[in-house]
Design a protein that fits this description.
By secondary structure, the chain is of the alpha+beta class. It has helices at residues 7-15, 25-32, 47-56, 106-111, 135-140, 150-156, 160-171, 177-185, 195-206, 209-212, 217-227, 230-234, 236-239, 255-265, 271-276, 280-288, 294-308, 313-325, 336-345, 350-365, 372-387, 409-425, 432-446; strands at 21-23, 39-43, 60-65, 70-74, 79-84, 86-89, 99-102, 121-123, 128-130, 143-144, 174-175. This is HD domain-containing protein.
Length: 447
């Protein structure tokens, strides 16, 4: 038995008067020895017939779509998607098929899919693998071939360009030369895909190493996006750094490769921010011949990119701040009080910023040792915590009510901010009596 089939699903297959198959990713992953948790189903049967039978077997039907032959249903623990055997006709690279024709032929259904390694079927009732196109050989060889001529497959659906990179990254597969050239020739088709789908695929790609434990798989996927020219359409601002040299005493790689390697070495929490951390460099170099100010320009450009991709607003805001702050104290010469103020100002993203700093440092010369700036900052931060430094106004030992009568209402917030800054430099000042005395001194100066 290749797949462990849930009892209710096996019961459904037994009661059907047609063969019911698990298709695609779960079969591929089982052959690889990977864990699998998605069960996409297929059969030479109408969606309405499958839905009725599933309901009789105790499944909850969440949606039946006659036009595409799709049924979404659940057993309460796992979700399933069923699709009738069919043939698809696409319109110029758009993801959704323009026309769907149903068929009883498994070979026809297999050929409508993207890659042979995904055109594998497991007959639940017979407990056997069905391999219409020779996909098992590709899985064994860890190769990716298209189900038909590569140019035809990629021309149909532009999203397949990113799926190629993501699935190779997740599974440790390598595309054939024909597959690569087919993707490269059709790279512009990605422009037909909705930004939300591109963002979803990019996010999955950036975490591809986590699915099956393929070390640096996400980096391999990014390199494949670059090699097929898809990156030039998805992130043209970043791709502009390809071949752009950097100072050899600090960098072993050009601007684009440095960015890809920053994502390679980055913690999963900051992969996207690390990928974009130097996105301002190409802009600055092309406009001024220098990289000076690329952190500020990068923050602006990163914001534009994430808005274009319709990324979640909170995530985008954090990424923009990380890109804008990643250059601070690069040479380690900032004085302690300035670092204290910087840490306090960025306390809510401080831990993430350390991760971006580390990714940036490691990507310069593939050095995985701790970034010296991090060592310095963490020493200062430990001192601040030991002193009881307040990082927010809420942590101050006084509040606005304590300043009423000393300052007009419009000055209270400003005064609390000034007192907070004093405490950031010296945590021992965060005592009620000391803060009140300091406030009285400030009031006297303004009198």
């Amino acid at each position: 038995m290749l797949l462990e089939i849930p009892y209710k699903l096996r019961l459904l297959a037994k009661r059907a008067d047609f063969p019911l198959y698990v298709a695609g990713g779960a079969v591929r992953d089982a052959l690889c020895g990977y864990a699998y948790d998605d069960f996409d189903l297929a059969a030479p049967a109408p969606a309405e017939k499958l839905a009725a039978l599933a309901a009789e077997c105790g499944f909850k039907i969440n949606g039946t779509y006659k036009n595409t032959g799709t049924v979404n249903f659940t057993d309460g623990e796992r979700k399933y998607e069923f699709t009738s055997f069919r043939k698809d006709v696409y319109r110029g690279g758009e993801h959704a098929p323009e026309k769907v024709t149903f068929t009883d032929d498994i070979v026809t259904d297999a050929r409508r899919r993207d890659f042979k390694c995904n055109a594998l079927y497991y007959d639940i009732g017979a407990d056997e693998l069905v391999d219409p196109l020779g996909g098992r050989k590709d899985v064994e060889e860890r190769a990716v071939n298209t189900t038909r001529d590569a140019d035809e497959v990629f021309a149909e659906d532009g999203l397949r360009l990113m799926r190629l990179a993501r699935q190779c990254a997740e599974n440790g597969f390598v595309p054939t030369t024909e597959c690569i050239f087919g993707a490269k020739f059709n790279a512009a088709r990605i422009q037909k895909i909705a930004p939300e789908r591109i963002y979803t695929e990019l996010t999955l790609l950036l975490h591809a190493d986590e699915k099956h434990g393929i070390r640096y798989g996400h980096y391999d996927g990014l390199e494949l996006l670059k090699g097929t020219d898809v990156l030039s359409y998805v992130l043209p601002e970043l791709a502009a750094g390809d071949g752009m040299p950097q100072r050899s005493d600090f960098h072993d790689h050009d601007v684009l490769e440095h960015s890809l390697r920053a994502a390679k070495y980055a913690d999963g929490k900051v992969r996207l921010s690390s990928l974009l951390h130097d996105v301002g460099k190409p802009y600055c170099f092309l406009h001024t011949g220098k990289f000076h100010g690329h952190d500020a320009e990068g923050a602006r450009i990163a914001g534009e990119i994430l808005e274009r991709l319709k990324a979640p607003k909170k995530l985008a805001q954090t990424a923009v701040r990380l890109v804008g702050a990643h250059m601070y104290d690069l040479d380690g010469k900032a004085k302690e009080n300035k670092v204290r103020a910087f840490i306090a100002k960025n306390h809510d993203i401080y831990d993430l910023l350390l991760l971006v700093k580390q990714a940036d440092y490691s990507a310069c010369k593939d050095d995985l040792r701790e970034c010296p700036t991090i060592t310095k900052w963490e020493g200062i931060r430990r001192k601040m915590l030991a002193e009881g430094v307040p990082f927010t106004l809420k942590e101050l030992k006084i509040n606005g009510n304590d300043l009423k009568g000393l300052f007009p209402p419009e000055k209270i917030g400003e005064t609390l901010g000034a007192l907070l800054r004093e405490c950031v430099y010296d945590g021992s000042k965060n005592e009620r009596e000391k803060l009140l005395a300091a406030a009285e001194r400030l009031a006297a100066k303004e009198a």
